[in-house]
Design a protein that fits this description.
The protein is mainly alpha-helical and about 180 residues long. The protein folds into two domains: about 5-95, Rna Polymerase Sigma Factor, Chain: A (Orthogonal Bundle), CATH 1.10.1740; about 110-180, Orthogonal Bundle (Arc Repressor Mutant, subunit A). The chain has helices at about 5, 10-35, 40-55, 55-60, 70-95, 110-130, 130-145, 150-155, 160-180. Helix 3 packs across helix 5 (about 70-95) and helix 8 (about 150-155) packs across helix 9 (about 160-180). The protein starts with a helix and ends with a helix.
């Protein structure tokens, strides 16, 4: 119950939030588990929700008693959905990388390394065919290892625009590689 550490200098608020946690834990955990279908992730979401609620204590105290569970359920469900989306997005990006490009994979023989180098050469050639903005965004993100926000700052655009450039760039790169890159 990490949220109690945040409230250690406010004992009334800590007692209030602890009471909410004890009363509604099973409900919140059940809602998170429905979305995530993973016990540890559901527990993490309940804890993250309680941490978020440390800044919402005045709002929670002002709610009618019968509306508090609904507010808690909506908050935990939204937090769980956000975590689910993050994990799904991360898995999709990882699934886009062919196994032969993963270092230390079972295909780490000299022949597979040669094929991987050929793959890297094909990617470089295909990358050169992208529009300049997409090429810049892809280079900053995947060669230099910058985050989406850092790419946006470097290109002088909003983060959403940078993510759009990266998405279009990845799609065009896939299309070029499927066509043979030539």
């Amino acid at each position: 119950m990490l949220f109690l550490l945040v409230l250690q200098d406010r004992p009334d608020d800590a007692a209030f939030l602890s009471d909410l946690y004890d009363t509604h834990y099973r409900l919140l955990y059940g809602q998170a588990l429905k979305v995530l279908r993973h016990r540890q992730d559901a527990e993490d979401v309940v804890q993250a929700t309680m941490l978020k609620l440390t800044s919402k204590i005045p709002l929670l105290r002002g709610l009618e008693r019968n509306k508090v569970p609904s507010y808690l359920v909506i908050t935990v469900r939204n937090t769980a959905i956000n975590l689910y989306r993050q994990k799904t997005s991360r898995q999709e990006h990882q699934a886009d990388v062919p196994l032969e490009w993963v270092p230390g994979s079972p295909q780490d023989s000299p022949e597979s390394r040669l094929l991987a180098m050929d793959g890297v050469a094909r990617i470089r050639a295909a990358l050169q065919k992208l529009p300049q903005r997409e090429k810049d965004a892809m280079t900053l993100r995947y060669v230099q290892g910058l985050s989406d926000e850092e790419v946006a700052d470097a290109l002088g655009v909003k983060a959403a625009s940078a993510r759009g450039l990266l998405s279009r760039g990845r799609q065009r790169l896939k299309d070029l590689l499927r066509e043979g890159g030539d």
